[in-house]
Write a structure and sequence with these properties.
The complex is a heterodimer of chains A (372) and B (534). Chain A is mainly β. Helices cover 2% and strands 47% of the residues of chain A. Chain A contains 1 helix and 30 strands. The radius of gyration of chain B is 26 Å and the shape is globular. The chains are: A mainly beta (372), B alpha+beta (534). Chain A: InterPro entries: Host-pathogen_enzymatic-act (IPR051200), QH-AmDH_bsu (IPR023879), Quino_amine_DH_bsu (IPR011044), WD40/YVTN_repeat-like_dom_sf (IPR015943).
Chain lengths: 372, 534
């Protein structure tokens, strides 16, 4: 029922945005310079100055569009973008668009895709991705084991993996912790030591032991934007049934998440708020870890300490993605279409927008902070 | 590689051979098709076995329908870089469907996919298969193939390589999709749909009769109605025919068409005809003796607009092939038309049914005014020596109306966009309650298609609130539903599209009362993916 309504309104492109005057946005005073990064079709990386909400520069990414997934180095100077139908990785100095890194993963006989997974080590020296190789024999394909590939960023253009380690299937987004591990978001959330391939379970999801009345979680995330709270969120949907009759109508439906603290690599797993509408991505307010924001057909604000939704703002079209300024005051909602919608984090009211040259579709929306 | 050699050899045989094809025997054609495989496919595939019984990697370990082979070969050209002329492609699909096709029994239960009658909810084989394999396309797509377990495994790996996110979708990411598909599902499919079967062995050995000749045809065209006609199939070469169709719709309008047919695997009839200016396609299966054909005919550019089609061979013998309409309400005189061939002798409509008057009479078509008395039930209709069992249903009261399709998807379109609207055509099937007097039970008596008036209402409260019935489209008198225009509608809440969820209502008059039947329809947005078959 709900779904069907959402489905209808997903067709409305920008109808709300048209009338109102949206240009007046108070520039936020910031000690450090924050840049909002995203990729649009055909294949451009945009560097948006978050003090003026204007595009500072646009870098051309070689080849066809990839998915727009990217990782930002901790010092905020470099962004690594997944290009060419999820196969190649290109690194840019966002201060001048210079291409400093590239890795072409596929060969004529092996097709290699990375499903969103890119991460840079805390010291900025290594780049990680989970490769999903398929061997292309002459008259058949052969699925091979996925592996974590480690690249030396210093190797620059045409870099090759320096180490690889087998990992689970179905890993999407990943993140590097300050302790040197790589968080792997798959059926369960795991962490791997990229020096030796040792893996530990961070949060059981598919294999959780939550009791028979809980539906195994459907965990999925396409985007990483936890940099402002230094965390990694793997959201999931689950349901608690009232009996072994498995009545979907009377079950309690919940959003939940595994939230990994990237300083320690430790996680908390919890049901957060009742499932009422679809949220594609969550972020945490950097000022208060109980406050989360989510986006899809709505921008919403939640207090997870009380399992409550505090505010909902109907968006004029679908926005897959969102991020937040370092001071927690301004929310940027993007993805899907070609406009980034800017909102006040207290009221969720719209306070501005940024028009881009093409659609973001599935691209990440990330913040790079360059400190003086 | 000996590519160039083979090519020149083939060029020398070339068109001459094809032109003579009608005269040469099948083994030479088979060699010709094998030569195409050697010339065109061995850049990637490999040949083993002997020259007389060659085996081609991947190709020889599968069997499928002509449509199945076409899909694979189209993929070889579109995605793998195969180059093939149209003639080579035709010859290859024919050869592969003939020599590695499906036996008639092996297509049973899944012919809707071949007939492109896709407005239906499949009877799932089982939930596991539905979730693993039936969420992107129909289950019929794989149920109409036969492979070794190894080939089912290769197919899973093909999906993973071609559609790499397969294992990340909903209904896949919450389980070990690849391991399940590659191990459990492939083994399961290898048992359910194995390469080697008794059915296929038997069908290969069976003698097949040529489908050339004259056929007595009955069918239904949406918007025009039921018709009866004569079809001729004149053989142009082995398995290929020129076809004409000539007849009358129930309202007396003439129907005329001509085109071409190909018969695959000894029984799969596929024809393209232009009928009164409209390109139509026929998909039928012959029975084992090759004396009758059953299937569907639809508008080539709009497969949703179609109806059933059947043909009975003229063997010089008398035959009743259909009675239109197929029901008679007890106590009420009504016109019935008996469709057949070589109809001579007395007319007998079965127990308690009286012919009050013969309105017109020809060898192939008799119209009578008839009246039934007595018990409800099916009657055998006879003209002279010819008899058609259960051809006429005598009933006292209409108790139930079914709407077909019961579940349909239509799509908004047009309005200057580049995708046309996807319409749906409906029919109502009437039943009487049967011996137990309760409609909706097993013993209900199927009376046949009945004229109905058509309307829509919102499917539920949400649809009612959004006024889906006002915006999503409308019916014409012939039971064809046309969805709304594509694009945003400023009149609608939040300027939504003209999509909606509707209940389709058929109202059938019966004596002084009316009986309603319902179906459900989703009016959806355009489908930008052009599909060969779903």
């Amino acid at each position: 029922m709900k779904l069907n309504k959402l489905f209808k309104s997903a067709g409305l492109v920008g109808s709300l945005a048209l009338g109102s005057a949206l240009s007046a946005v108070a520039p936020t005073a910031m000690a450090d310079q924050e840049y909002l990064l995203t990729v649009t079709r055909p294949n451009q990386l945009h560097v948006i100055d978050m003090s003026t909400n204007k595009i500072a520069r646009t870098c051309d990414i070689p080849g066809p569009f990839g998915s727009g997934a990217m990782a930002v180095s901790k010092d905020g100077t470099h962004a690594y973008v997944l290009g060419n139908n999820w196969e190649d990785i290109y690194g840019f100095d966002i201060r001048n668009c210079e291409m400093t890194f590239s890795a072409v993963q596929s060969t004529p006989t092996i097709q290699v895709k990375s499903f969103q997974s890119v991460a840079v080590s805390a010291d900025g020296k290594e780049l990680y991705t989970v490769q999903n190789p398929i061997k292309k024999h002459r008259d058949r394909f052969e699925v091979m084991e996925p592996r974590l590939a480690v690249f030396n960023i210093e190797d620059g253009l045409n870099a090759k993996p320096v180490r690889t380690f087998p990992v689970d299937r179905r890993i999407t987004k990943i993140a590097a912790t300050e302790k040197g591990e790589v968080i792997l978001g798959g059926a369960d959330v795991k962490a791997i030591n990229p020096q030796n391939g040792e893996t530990r379970v961070v949060t059981k999801l598919a294999n959780w032991e939550k009791g028979p009345l809980w539906l195994p979680p459907d965990a999925f995330a396409m985007h990483s934007q936890g940099e402002q709270a230094n965390e990694y969120i793997m959201p999931y949907i689950t349901a608690k049934f009232d009996s072994e009759e498995w009545n979907f109508e009377t079950a309690e439906w919940w959003w939940g998440m595994s939230r990994v603290d990237l300083a320690t690599g430790e996680a908390e797993r919890m049901e957060t708020i009742p499932f009422e509408f679809i949220i594609f991505n969550f972020i945490t307010d950097p000022r208060d870890s109980n406050i989360l924001y989510g986006s899809f057909n709505t921008l919403s604000k939640h207090d997870i300490s009380e399992n409550k939704t505090l505010a909902v703002y109907e968006m004029p079209h679908t926005y897959y993605n969102l991020n937040i300024s370092g001071d927690g005051k301004t929310i940027y909602v993007g993805g899907t279409s070609s406009d980034i919608s800017i909102h006040d984090s207290d009221t969720l009211e719209k306070i501005g927008s940024i028009q881009l040259t093409g659609d973001m579709t599935t691209s990440d929306l990330r913040v790079a902070t360059i400190r003086d | 590689m000996a590519l160039s050699n083979n090519n020149s050899k083939r060029a020398a045989l070339g068109t001459g051979l094809l032109a003579l094809a009608g005269l040469v025997s099948t083994p030479v054609l088979a060699q010709d098709a094998q030569q195409i495989i050697r010339d065109r496919c061995l850049a990637c595939h490999t040949e083993t076995g002997s020259a007389e019984a060659p085996s081609f990697s991947r190709i020889s370990e599968q069997r499928k329908t002509p449509e199945g082979w076409l899909m694979t070969i189209n993929r070889m050209t579109h995605l793998r870089g195969l180059e093939l002329t149209r003639e080579e492609k035709r010859a290859l699909v024919k050869h592969l469907a003939d020599t590695q096709g499906l036996a008639p029994e092996e297509t049973e239960g899944y012919r809707y996919l071949l007939e492109q009658d896709t407005n239906l909810v499949e009877n799932s084989i089982d939930q596991g298969l539905a979730e693993t394999c039936g969420r992107c396309h129909s289950e019929a797509r794989f149920a109409l193939q036969r492979r070794t377990e190894q080939e089912w495994k290769y197919l899973v790996d093909f999906h993973m390589g071609q559609f790499p996110t397969t294992e990340l979708h909903s209904l896949a990411r919450d389980r070990q999709w690849y391991q399940i598909a590659s191990n459990d599902t492939a083994a399961d499919l290898g048992k359910r749909f194995p390469l080697i079967t008794q059915e296929w062995n038997n069908w290969q050995k069976a003698s097949k009769s040529d489908l050339m000749g004259r056929w007595r045809v009955t069918g239904f065209v949406p918007g025009k109605g039921e018709f009866d006609a004569w079809m001729t199939a004149a053989k142009t070469s082995e398995g290929h025919y020129d076809v004409t169709l000539e007849g009358l719709y129930a309202d007396g309008t003439a129907l005329n068409g001509e085109g071409k047919a190909t018969v695959y695997t000894g029984y799969e009839w596929r024809a393209s005809l232009t009928i009164d200016g409209v390109k139509m396609r026929q998909v039928m299966a012959a029975d084992k003796q090759g004396n009758s054909l059953e299937g569907r005919m639809f508008v080539a550019a709009e497969r949703e607009i179609g109806g059933e089609l059947s043909a009975v061979r003229d063997q010089g013998k008398a035959a009743v092939v259909a009675v239109q309409p197929s029901y008679l309400r007890a106590g009420e005189p009504a016109e019935l038309t008996l469709i057949g061939q070589n109809l001579k002798g007395d007319i007998n409509l079965g127990e308690g049914v009286v012919v009050e008057k013969v309105l017109s009479r020809a060898d192939d078509r008799i119209t009578v005014l008839a009246k039934a008395t007595g018990n409800e039930g099916l009657r055998t209709v006879r003209v002279g020596q010819a008899a058609s069992e259960s051809a006429l249903a005598v009933y006292s009261e209409l108790a139930r109306v079914d709407v077909t399709p019961a579940n349909a998807v239509t799509r908004i379109g047009g309005a200057g966009g580049n995708l046309p609207k996807v319409r749906a055509s409906y029919r109502a099937v009437g039943y009487s309650a049967g011996a137990d007097g309760k409609p909706g039970t097993e013993d209900d008596l199927r009376l046949g298609y009945m004229p109905a008036s058509w309307s829509i209402k919102p499917a539920d409260e949400v649809a009612a609130h959004d006024k889906d019935d006002k915006y999503a489209g409308s019916f014409n008198a012939a039971g064809i539903f046309t969805p709304g225009d594509a694009g945003l509608n400023p009149e609608r809440k939040m300027s939504a599209n003209n999509v909606g969820r509707l209940t389709v209502v058929a109202t059938v008059a019966d004596g002084s009362t009316q009986v309603e039947g319902e179906g459900s329809m989703l009016v959806a947005v355009q489908d930008f993916v052009r599909r060969v078959l779903d």
